[in-house]
């Protein structure tokens, strides 16, 4: 009965049925762990064959960062060819963890990318914590790695760096990236595209590929068009290169003729050049002998200059040849697109051969498993984000998107699961399946319960420290990163508010608290009106709309909030509709600066009694969190006590700092000297009306008069 676009249940059931009739092959090191017996440590990379030398590429920002990332370890640094200790770094680990053997950290110079600005290497700018570096190291090695990431600890950034390191350490291996939601997949994919990863090796599968906020189209069709367009562009460059060295033949006719030209003319000239300048210490001679001066005349800056020594001149020449080599390597990969004529053939080649990093949701993996098997799809690494939200069977399916090789050997070399079992589990509507079959237990959660080794990220960089205290009690040792106390945005108070977070007690409106227009469709008009009034107040004093998110624990309340917002805000251009009103469950994995949270219930606690839902709700805010609820009800819930004990330390009436405008200039640490206490909803609406009139007197274009207070809101049944 679901919409045709959403109705994938039958297809997934067929996939599960096919798996039951298939000879399933998983890596030997994962077999016993999946079944839940044997040594929990046997799948960890340290029990297999850990890499002795790992190229961390751009993981580390400087020498100090390396030292901080391996506390208590002896590290011997070796400079690069220029005598500097600077990134990138290649780390050699001692053969045995016992003894005083030192790690050797070798700095090296990456190959020169060439003389054009667009070829400049894109590098990581995140200062990873020691726990994140441990996770990156575990994910780069072969074996099973499990990373527990509390809210705001950089799970996505860690996953991106793991993928980047695998890509650079093992350039011929293929990586499958799987997430639960399209939103999370797009977030991680956009970060991957921003790193030093060749975009021709990136592919995003699924219907939501077009929602990526990137300049390029990473869908199958977009990648095919990109390869065909790039082919024409590079063949033109090949023709220009041929003319620059005096060759008039039609070498740019096809990728095949271009390859012959490269082998017999470009490589031959380069090898001749290397022979002539071998052991040469004269930069002038190197520059004179360079055979491709004319081709690189269009570079924005001169390839060579008079201040260069022989080593710099040779590196510049090697950078130019590296660019030429890149051009012809790209054309070699485009050659298949010349031979294959139909879109289906080209797309199949893209998925099975061309792309090195393939991203999809777990639902897409289940729907298309048959097609992947038929096409001969293969991959070496599986990285799964949001794995604590994915059903066990849906976690298992992506491991089986390829046929076993001869001798029933599985090509899969590493599996990396990243998630947080303390946040929301997979959604199971059937109570019997959920409670008695434990179907809401993800594979990630089961592995944590079984004692499989995992790395827990232990520093959050999302929220103010005082907001993080509302949920860090749920984790072993969740601290704060330096920037959440050092950056100005975290040091300054929230303009117009006396506190950075507060619980606001909301009484009944007209004798009515929670209501239920239809079964399980819970609403609370008083909370909806109060939240919209606070939203209007924030917009009037200058808060950007996109910095504010309104959350609720029920779909019914979300619908009511949208109705009230449309009634109150849509007619005032200076206020406008809230850009994001969502349920807590759907907003998992996202964040915003300011969160207005409605808990809705006034009779019973409801499904917020699940602590994992509370953790998600409280951990979405970065700078300000304002919780609207019935204080007496939720404060008496023993499961929620650690968080509500902190919320109850402040007044249960909303306290404002009138006269302030966004952005604030007041220090958060100094507190608010003049607090204005809002007694109830009607009082808050009066404050909003007064501020709105003041704003309209200053700026008549700000908006028309606001609607009447809450008692005059009459909604028909469809609105409710």
Question: Would you give an account of this structure?
Answer:
The protein is α/β, with parallel strands linked by helices and 720 residues long. It contains 25 helices and 22 strands. A hairpin with a 7-residue loop joins strand 15 and strand 16. The longest helix has 30 residues, at 310-339.
Beta content: 5-15%
**C-alpha termini separation:** 24 Å
Main beta sheet, described?
7 strands, parallel
- Lateral arrangement of strands in the main beta sheet: 7-8-6-9-10-5-11
Total count of strands = 22
Write the layout of secondary structure elements.
Elements: H1 9-20, H2 28-35, E1 53-57, H3 63-69, E2 75-78, E3 89-92, E4 103-107, H4 130-140, E5 143-148, H5 155-169, E6 175-179, H6 182-193, E7 202-204, H7 220-244, H8 255-276, H9 283-289, H10 310-339, H11 343-354, E8 357-361, H12 362-367, H13 369-375, E9 381-384, H14 392-396, E10 414-419, H15 431-435, H16 443-450, E11 455-456, E12 459-460, H17 465-468, E13 479-480, H18 483-486, H19 488-491, E14 501-505, E15 514-515, E16 523-524, H20 525-540, E17 548-552, H21 555-569, E18 581-583, E19 592-598, H22 611-618, E20 621-629, H23 631-635, H24 641-647, E21 655-656, E22 676-677, H25 681-698
Parallel strand pairs: 2-4, 5-10, 5-11, 6-8, 6-9, 7-8, 9-10, 12-13, 14-20, 17-18, 17-19, 19-20
Antiparallel strand pairs: 1-3, 3-4, 15-16, 21-22
Helix pairs in contact: 4-5, 5-6, 7-10, 7-11, 8-10, 9-10, 20-21, 20-25
